[in-house]
Request: fold
Amino acid sequence: MLNIVLFGPPGAGKGTQAVKLIDQYKLVHLSTGDILRSELAAETKLGLKAKRYMDRGELVPDEVVIGMIETKLDQNPDAKGFIFDGFPRTQAQARALDNLLSGKNTAITTMLALEVEKQELIQRLMGRGKVSGRADDQDISVIENRITVYNRETSPVIDYYEGQGKFKAVNGMGSIEEIFDRLCSAIDSI
Ligand code: AMP
Reply:
């Protein structure tokens, strides 16, 4: 299996690139942000619980997102591999993901970390907010908090995969096609 953690701060382009990568490599896209937003739209108990964290740009508790990923893995027994987008966001989530995958006799192949300058992240998120309607993309203080939370709680996930020799940095500046080509080269070089 080809199991990729597509990593990077909010606005790095993970969602955009994941859609192109699943088409190229025939993988299943698992985005915890997308799953949470659909739970919220359906007004499920889980969605309503997550809302207060998402509105503030804070992380939803680990056990909630880990449970969601477990369900999705179980729902896709025939997948050739997965792209994890926006997950894991803490070292505890990374450990849980390793355990879930080893229970299915597979593992993370690589972590591709998109690197983008902070000013560019803010510009992209504000631009997306105008078209996506996402509340957390339209409030500069929530955007700033998401980047702070990324630096404090999520960036240590890099050390986790670096320790396993699986971390690859990818320049996330430039056009969508340029970045896609860099990601494909990183995958093809494995
Ligand atoms: P995203 O679409 O990945 O930017 O996620 C939007 C929001 O959903 C985040 O700001 C968090 O509140 C929540 N979220 C998404 N993925 C996770 C995760 N793996 N762990 C905790 N919270 C998450």
About this structure: Residues 2-188 form a domain with the Rossmann fold fold (CATH 3.40.50.300). The mean pLDDT is 97. The CA atoms of residues 13 and 172 lie 7 Å apart. The chain has one domain: 2-188.
